Structure formats: structure tokens, C-alpha cells
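Appendix B, record 7
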Amino acid sequence: MARSAGPRDALTDVAGLRVGHAQVPGERALSGTTVVLAPEGGAVAAVDVRGGGPGTRETDALDPRNLVQRIDAVVLTGGSAYGLDAAGGVMAWLEERGRGVRVGGPDQVVPVVPAACLFDLGRGGDWRARPDAATGRAAAEDAARTGPGAPVAMGAVGAGTGAVVGGFKGGVGTASMVLAESGATVAALVVVNAAGSAVDPLTGVLYGRLLEGPVTAPAPGRHQEAQRRLAEAVAAGGPPPLNTTLAVVATDADLSRAQAQKLAGTAHDGLARAVRPVHLLNDGDTVFTLATGTVPLPGESPFALNEVLAAGADTLTRAVVRAVLAATGVVGPGGSFPSYRELYGAG
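C-alpha cells (predicted):
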């Protein structure tokens, strides 16, 4: 299946999608929220939750058997279950613009805003520094300010501000692919925050790099030194290792709600290639999908969706790699979280 990266190699290569970030203010805060805005009229959406400790809001509304056909935004947030308050700010922002499910007159709408949270409580030193409705509104406003196809900030931003993966600093990553057969774009945005690791402990190679072909491993001496420094940082202590990786996989392909749900499920394969172990009881790994429906799939084959499914998994793997490489290390009262680049270089 021939394919190439989109022009920005980002979620915003799916036309109409916008991404915004906001951080919780304060010197001892290390948390934030990321919002994905759908185009006017919304997008078909679905979700697949594989982790054992999820924190979510409005995910039942995405079941293909239920009423809601399209949604206007997805919220990814830090702050564990407290951070789900951020969705209220996005909901209010959408209501002010008349966007949502119409339930009465022209101004009577109920925005459906699916959300999922990750655990980052206390990583900045203040357990109570977590996203709220104001943080969600700020992230929605940040997304709305961007233009079509705008680049997406990666690393320790938005919901990735306090993310950690296997002791390394995690964060936000994004990637995209343009498919050869259909011309559809498939893209992913991920917030990497896992109890497992993105790094092979035997070699120092990022697991997700193995998808790209032959990989040159770090020199043994550098790997040993990196592992020593990582072990010291982990031993120094910090909040408990409760985590959760969150992702949005999007496409401009014309998908039904059932097809979108299938894409959410197979996209988890991409996460499993890049983070090991994954889907543990102290993770709440959740993948949302959005389909804007502007590119029809070839109708002559019942298997035309396969190209999109395979690309969703591969793109999510690449997004994880880019998140880890974009992250910057943090040392503070809540713990020490070195970055992969700090210990290994460019990777």
C-alpha cells in the first residue's frame, strides 16, 4: 500500500480539523488540555477504549446504535477525572456559536463533546493544579485561531504537558499519510502517557522506529549511561505510575459510524507496536476517530476500508515516535522526567 506523509505530517492534513492546546498556569502546575475541533457541521466519530483504568465523558453517545450522528469537538485532557471539567468549557464555547445537536429553536443546541483524561496529578508539585472549564475554553479558542492546515505543536504542550512514558518525558505527537489508492488522508494525534515504555530496554531503540525499517541502535556505552540516568530519575520518586495514552485518528474518507468504530479499534494496533506493555490496568488507553467524509472510498471492493485501517495503525505508531522525540525533559518538585533526546540524542 503506497502512501506518503501529508504536507504538514499532522492531524490538520485532514481538511477542516483544527487543534488547540492550553496549559494550567502556575509554577507548580504540569498539566493541560488539547482540543480537536471538527469542521462546521461536525464529523462522524467513534471511540475504542482498551485500557483498564479509563476516565471518559460522552463516549456512549458515539456507539453506532445511538442517536448522535456527528460531533463538533474531542477533548483530550490531563488532570485525571478532575480534568474532564475541561469539556464543559468546550461545550459552552460551542453553544455560544450554535454548534451542537439541535433540540428546539435555532439557539437551542446541546453540543456533544466526547472527552478522555490521562493521569498527571502532582507531576508539577501541586496536586490541585489541573485543567478546568477555563482550560478547555482556552484550548478551543486556540484551535479556532488557527488557519486551515496549520502546523500542530508537539511535545510538552496541552494534554501532553505532564505526560510521562516509561520514566521518559512524554507528550503530544502527530503524523499523517495520503493513501495511493483512494487519495484519502489518514492522520493521528496522540498524547503519550504510559506505564509501559516507548524504548527497548535492551538497545535504546524506540519501538515505533522498527516500523520504518532497519534501525541503527545507540552505542552500547551511551545506552548503558542513559539507562543509568533514567533509573536514577525513576528512583528519585514522584506521583504513582498511573497513566493513559489518548489519541485521535482522523480521515477525510467517507466512513459510516460502524466503519469509524472499526478504525478506532485497529488503530490501537499502532499503539501496541510503539509502547510495551500497553492497555494495562493502570492505563486507560483510548482512541477516538473522526471522519469528515469528503473523499469516497472505491465502491467496487468490500475491502476498500482495509487501506484506511492499516494506515490508521501505522500513522498512530509514527505519531508516538514523534511525540517522544519532541518532548523536553522536566526537573521539578513533582519529579524528574528526562527526555529521550536528552539521554540518547536525536534517535
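Remarks on this record: The mean pLDDT is 94. The radius of gyration is 19 Å.
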